[in-house]
UniProtKB/TrEMBL annotation, chain A:
InterPro entries: Nicalin (IPR016574). It comes from the Eukaryota. This is CLUMA_CG012687, isoform A. The chain crosses the membrane at residues 495-516. GO terms for cellular component: endoplasmic reticulum membrane. Belongs to the nicastrin family. It is found in: Endoplasmic reticulum membrane. Residues 1-30 form the signal peptide.
TrEMBL record, chain B:
InterPro entries: TMEM147. The chain crosses the membrane at residues 6-23, 35-56, 139-156, 168-192, 198-218. Belongs to the TMEM147 family. It is a multi-pass membrane protein. This is BOS complex subunit TMEM147. The keyword Iron does not apply. It comes from Clunio marinus. It is found in: Cell membrane; Endoplasmic reticulum membrane. The keyword ATP-binding does not apply. Keywords: Cell membrane, Endoplasmic reticulum, Membrane, Transmembrane, Transmembrane helix. Its main location: membrane. It comes from the Eukaryota.
């Protein structure tokens, strides 16, 4: 018994401590967590671009309702327009954008609007935290509910009390990445010929490692570059004699980063004297993103004079005609006062190297160039012109045709063979099928994976990876930590609701209080019925006894 | 504002017990016996946990998936609660109304704090859910049921219980012990919403368990003159 008493004493004394520990362990959990990504944030040549804000703890609102700097707007990307985005940017405290479930959901107009919106987002820095959420049905439902609520702002009192609100919480980070670097990978086609002072052709392209969303964009140029490497290396291995030394290079600074790594490439190769006697530099930029069968050669010098560029352009035109495509020429002088280059070849031209850019776009400001949604250009084509075709296959076809034109033009230009032999090579030995395209379609940053390095090492010699590092004191570019964040959305009720609930609870407790106070009356009532029964029993018993004895 | 909601639901869960303690005259006797009753509740739960570990893994934690056998086994373990409560009753001297109330208040306070406390603590969080209000109302039902069970156990322990009433007392005790099987099972089969379920449980606890027990108790009290 004594043991039991001491046990009960222990439990009695230890109970508050156990309880406190349990309370500390418990945390509030949410049912509605979503994976989100913060809008890209970087700085180039001292100009910050993207979303500078990161953490959010605000009330969710629809853009159609009244909002202020304490509200976070939740919206589907197709509902946002450029003007609306500007208003949100200046007035709201945050923005969470839901991506579409698939491209077919969007109309042509919505897709065009999307490209414009994306350009607006990438035009300057925004103080407001902006996040992108991949499509999730629950999030779509919450957005629909918020929209619905805002459309009925003037509803009756009871509905207003009972309405659901949502609290948006994101604990993102926005730290500057220390020692940022941009990778460049280069390699050259192996030749048996020991002659080193051959004229050099550099084929240069870029890997777009981010767009408005800090994810790899569809890197079709890099895919084409890899296909060129793959096929040309086969020919070089067959000992066809080449007039040229061919160097391939891929860097990770696209037009958003002002082709920054190009300078580093020029310094390390041309200025150092490792590469001499440049025939021309071919820059590949957005070659397959535009579904139309038209290509442009962008040059900062007119190609009226006979020269290497003119010669190559003529070959390109001839080869394009064979695939029912056209090759046009765009001449644009370099604006030396502008630190931002329109095309990659301008940097080579400034350093007095012959260079030009091949692109499917006419205008350097075309949104397709930096778009995360560039695939949508194909989906709109397939939904309108070819309703039955799969847009992926349309895109693969375009990559195939583009690669063939370039490859045949290069074969034509670089090999010492007669016309017939060149055509035979082009037709017989260079099959570019969908399988080989798919092999190179999802290339990832050199800093993240080894797939580009492995491919380069497989086909090329003297493969070298170098890094364009930012200056410690005056960095030309800065990257910010994007990280994957989690969006927590909590269902909340208005303050009025809790007051209302308090009122109801008070009434209920008051009733209980009355029942407890007057419980004796209920008990008396029950006891009186018991007493009556007892009396009846007694009376019955007496009469029974009486009858027995009488 | 969420702290306000937490206050609301805690008030809803705790104040009825406080009222019972304060306005039924229990406060005159002090808290010692109530603490004893609470401690024995904790000890009983530990014993129950030990016993439940010997049971096969038929107990399903998912409320949507009703497991008849699992519930039956769990309810039979709940019979240990009756033993604990009977022990509490035996430790409190006297035979007045307050003896029963002390045991019931002590037992249900500990039960509400330990079984609902953690859930209600989460009402502080940003997320709103009706579940906290429902749990608070459930603890009110629990209070009624605990009072009824205490009363029934006391009646069960009396040798001078009217013979006619003995089977009713046993039946009510078993009905309460296996409430989770027959009542929850029926409500689940009928597919009734949570709020209606709560109302039905409240009504069953008061009218099917509470009032008949009160009648039996009044009868006994009349017989022994308290």
């Amino acid at each position: 018994m004594g043991m039991l008493n001491s046990l009960t004493d222990f439990i009695k004394n230890g109970l508050p401590i156990i309880f406190m520990v349990l309370l500390m362990c418990s945390s509030s959990l949410s049912d509605t967590d979503f994976e989100i990504q913060r809008m890209v944030h970087f700085e180039i040549m001292g100009i910050p671009i993207g979303s500078a804000g990161s953490s959010l703890n605000m009330e969710a609102r629809s853009f159609s309702s009244d909002f202020n700097f304490r509200s976070c707007i939740l919206a589907r990307i197709q509902d946002l327009s450029v003007d609306l985005f500007r208003v949100i940017k200046s007035k709201a405290g945050g923005l969470v954008i839901l991506m579409p479930q698939n491209e077919t959901q969007l109309s042509l107009e919505e897709k065009e609007n999307l490209f414009l919106l994306e350009q607006e987002m990438l035009s300057e820095e925004t103080r407001v935290p902006i996040y992108f959420a991949n499509y999730h049905q629950n999030l779509a439902n919450i957005i629909a509910e918020i929209d619905n609520f805002s459309s009925k702002m003037k509803m009756d009192f009871l509905n207003q009390i009972n309405s659901n609100g949502y609290q948006v919480v994101v604990g993102g980070t926005n730290a500057v990445i220390k020692n940022p670097k941009i990778s460049i990978i280069q390699g050259e086609l192996p030749t048996e010929d020991p002659q080193t002072n051959k004229p050099t052709i550099i084929i240069f392209s870029q890997l777009k490692t981010f767009g408005v969303v800090p994810n790899e964009l569809p890197n079709l140029d890099a895919t084409i570059l890899m296909l060129l490497i793959d096929n040309l290396s086969k020919l070089f291995n067959q000992n066809f004699s080449s007039k040229y030394r061919i160097i391939f290079a891929l860097h990770e600074s696209g037009s958003l980063l002002n082709f920054h790594a190009t300078k580093k490439f020029i310094e390390a190769n041309i200025d150092e004297g490792n590469v001499r006697n440049i025939e021309f530099v071919v820059c590949l930029d957005t070659l397959a993103e535009n579904p139309e069968s038209i290509f442009y050669l962008h040059s900062s010098k007119p190609i009226t004079n006979p020269g290497t560029t003119t010669k190559f352009f003529e070959v390109l035109q001839k080869k394009a005609e064979m695939y029912e495509a056209t090759f046009d020429y765009v001449h644009k002088k370099i604006n030396l006062a502008d630190p931002f280059h329109k095309w990659n070849h301008e940097i080579f031209n400034i350093k007095k190297n012959p260079a030009f850019t091949l692109s499917s776009l006419n205008n350097p400001l075309d949104p397709l160039r930096t778009s995360f949604f560039s695939k949508y250009a194909y989906s709109s084509l397939s939904s309108n012109d070819h309703p039955d075709s799969d847009y992926d296959s349309v895109m693969l076809k375009k990559i195939q045709v583009t690669t063939k034109i370039l490859l045949e033009a290069l074969v034509h230009y670089i090999f010492n063979l007669d016309e017939e032999a060149k055509d035979k090579i082009a037709k017989d030995t260079l099959p570019i099928d969908e399988q080989s395209i798919k092999k190179y379609i999802s290339l990832q940053s050199i800093q993240k994976s080894h797939n580009i390095k492995t491919a380069f090492e497989m086909f090329l010699k003297n493969v070298k990876i170098s890094y364009d590092k930012a200056d410690n004191l005056d960095p030309e570019f800065k990257f910010y930590d994007q990280g994957d964040s989690k969006l927590h959305i909590y269902k909340v009720k208005p303050a009025l609701f809790d007051l209302f609930l308090l009122l109801i609870i008070c009434c209920y407790l008051f009733c209980l209080y009355f029942i407890i106070i007057h419980f004796s009356k209920v008990y008396d009532l029950i006891q009186s019925t018991v007493t009556t029964n007892h009396d009846e029993n007694k009376t019955n018993g007496v009469s029974h006894v009486k009858s027995k004895y009488i | 504002m969420t702290l306000f909601h937490f206050g609301n639901v805690v008030a809803l869960a705790v104040l009825p017990i406080y009222f019972l303690y304060k306005f039924s005259g229990l406060s005159e006797y002090g808290l010692t016996k109530i603490f004893h009753a609470g401690s024995i509740y904790v000890f009983t739960q530990l014993c129950k946990m030990l016993i439940l570990t010997f049971f096969p893994e038929t107990i399903n934690t998912d409320p949507a998936d009703f497991n008849f056998l699992g519930e039956c086994l769990r309810c039979s373990a709940d019979l240990l609660d009756f033993v604990g409560l009977a022990f509490v009753l035996s430790k409190i001297p006297g035979k007045s109304h307050s003896k029963l109330l002390t045991a019931a208040v002590g037992w249900s306070s500990a039960e509400i704090i330990l079984s609902k406390g953690l859930i209600l603590w989460r009402a502080r969080g940003a997320e709103f859910s009706w579940i906290y209000t429902q749990k608070s109302l459930e603890s009110n039902i629990l209070l009624v049921v605990t009072c009824t069970v205490t009363c029934l156990l006391w009646l069960f322990s009396r040798h001078d219980l009217n013979r006619k009433h003995a089977p009713i007392v046993t039946f009510l005790l078993l009905a309460i012990a296996f409430k989770a099987v027959w009542l929850d099972g029926t409500l689940l089969v009928m597919g009734i919403g949570t709020w209606t379920c709560l109302a039905i449980k409240m009504a069953v606890s008061i009218f099917c368990f509470g009032l008949p027990t009160l009648y039996l108790y009044a009868n006994m009290a009349q017989t022994i003159g308290i």
